[in-house]
């Protein structure tokens, strides 16, 4: 599994005021914690971080965090954005150990969707779950989990229990019964627009009635002739 490298430096100041100053200078504040070590406040280059965040795999890979030249293996656990600008305001990284399991949310990739029988027949696909929370050792962390839709027909549903997980990977929450075996993707028949004769007949009748009422209104409430007197007033 390839690695991403995040270059960082130790952050001397903490707090909201210091974080605002760092962000104004093009830096993203963050913290590196876990593995029974003290948390380390860090700073990263905002433009570099933004480029890395464009890759889906960045969120489900073991990252190499290089702080002041020292390497640490970690995973991203939280990302905060400004609600108004979507600008990244803070990143949390969790140190990992080769002997301890980690819990991560890993994206689902739906493969062979466009070629399955139900989709070719015009069925509508609904992705009800887009990621799984899994537990595994760092070495077994997958970049994504595949959901194979090759044989799906209209009316078919794939549940969580039907998805094959990579070796060494398990769901963080066990599927104890059918109530917890949630549907992941469905393929349904498209809804058809009802164009029956009855609604059209009713619409025609309503239009005819409206036209009749409009004609009566024109006859009864027509604008009176303004006459010569009124015309002479305007002319004067």
Briefly summarize what is shown:
By secondary structure, the protein is of the alpha+beta class. The chain has 5 helices and 13 strands. The chain is extended, with a radius of gyration of 32 Å.
Describe this structure in words.
Mean pLDDT is 85; it is low at 221-236. It is built from 5 helices and 13 strands. The protein folds into 2 domains: 4-96, Ribosomal Protein L25, Chain P; 103-188, Ribosomal protein L25, C-terminal domain (RNA Polymerase Alpha Subunit, Chain A, domain 2). The strands form 3 sheets. The protein has a 6-stranded mixed beta barrel. The relative contact order is 0.11. The chain has helices at 16-24, 46-52, 117-120, 197-220, 227-235, and strands at residues 4-10, 27-34, 37-45, 63-67, 70-81, 88-95, 102-111, 124-127, 131-136, 145-148, 157-159, 170-171, 183-188. It has 236 residues and is α+β, with helices and mostly antiparallel strands.
